[in-house]
Amino acid sequence: MGPATVAQSALDPAGPQAAQLSHLWWVMFWVCTSVFLVVIAIVASAVLRRNSEPTPDRLLTGSVAFGVGATVAILFGFLVISFITGRAVASTVDAGAVTITVTGQQWWWNVEYIDPAPNLRVRTANEIHIPVGRPIVFNLASRDVIHSFWVPNLHGKRDLIPGYQTSFWLQADRPGVYRGQCAEFCGHQHAWMALYVTAESDAEYKRWLAAQREPAVEPGSDITRRGQELFLKSTCTQCHTIRGTIAGAVSGPDLTHVASRGSLAAGTLSNTREHIERWVRDPQQAKPGNRMPPNAMSDDDLHALSAYLESLK
Ligand code: CUA
């Protein structure tokens, strides 16, 4: 059992930057609420006193001057605290952090764990594991249109812009599975471009990373052998990688350990046998407009192929 899923909310911060942003939000919320209540009280008192003597001009001028002064002071205060928060969340982090490159594309997230040794790099999709209490540097890029990487419990949004790499860091202070969501409209399936960040202990994280570095398991039964054969003979290999086989294309998600992930198609479907079959046969039904074409095949072939994919833990 891994950590529990946390409700997606910017107001339930689980890391230092998210805490700063949530703090800023609450300050603005309470100041704006107070201003609103004061304005409503003034309007109400004006309505109640509509039949009394007109207020002298001198007093009116004083009130307007006070209102303008208070507005300027409050807005200036907001400017200062926003600036301080912006500086704090944009701070850089020392070397030695875990570095992950996330590339957005319509409509999923390509995730690569960077390591100086190329054989220790890991490529996966839509699911990121991080150790609790350690800074994680994200390098962010896009392969097609503008997306935005947003895991509300951990940090604010950061746009992924084609041809321009940005980076930021975040840290999770407590274990949990944090849902993230593309936060920039990027086409038909923008709403179904989700990801999950699992923050876990250092030991669990290292175990996960070591498992991801392994090549795919060899099929251990007749049906999975047949599934692998079908996979390698079909058009699947034109887009997907399964390390340890001849499939090495990178335009679609890496499937080497697809069965270890909690969801399919960037958070669209839970990772069950039924959903794998549905997705392989007609991905357009579950997520219209996505880049994967439908695959006409017999039920037997579909079962074999799904059994193979399901074995890729
Ligand atoms: Cu990607 Cu919205």
Written account of the structure:
The protein has 313 residues and is an alpha+beta fold. The chain has 3 domains: 16-89; 98-213, Cupredoxins -  blue copper proteins (Immunoglobulin-like); 222-310, Immunoglobulin-like (Sandwich), CATH 2.60.40. It is 37% helix and 20% strand. The protein is built from 7 helices and 13 strands. It has helices spanning 16-48, 57-89, 202-213, 222-233, 273-281, 283-286, 299-311, and strands at 5-6, 98-105, 108-113, 122-125, 127-131, 136-142, 147-150, 158-160, 166-170, 176-182, 194-200, 263-264, 269-270. Strands 1, 5, 7, 8, 10 and 11 form a 6-stranded mixed sheet that branches. Bound molecules: dinuclear copper ion. Dinuclear copper ion (CUA) binds next to loops. Dinuclear copper ion is lined by residues 104, 107, 147, 182, 184-186, 190, 193.
Give me a quick take on this structure.
This protein has 313 residues and is of the alpha+beta class.
Annotation, overall tally of beta strands: 13
How many alpha or pi helices? Answer: 7
User: How many distinct folded domains?
Assistant: 3
Structural class: alpha+beta
Portion of residues within helices: 25-40%
Radius of gyration: 26 Å
What's the shape? elongated
Oligomer: single chain
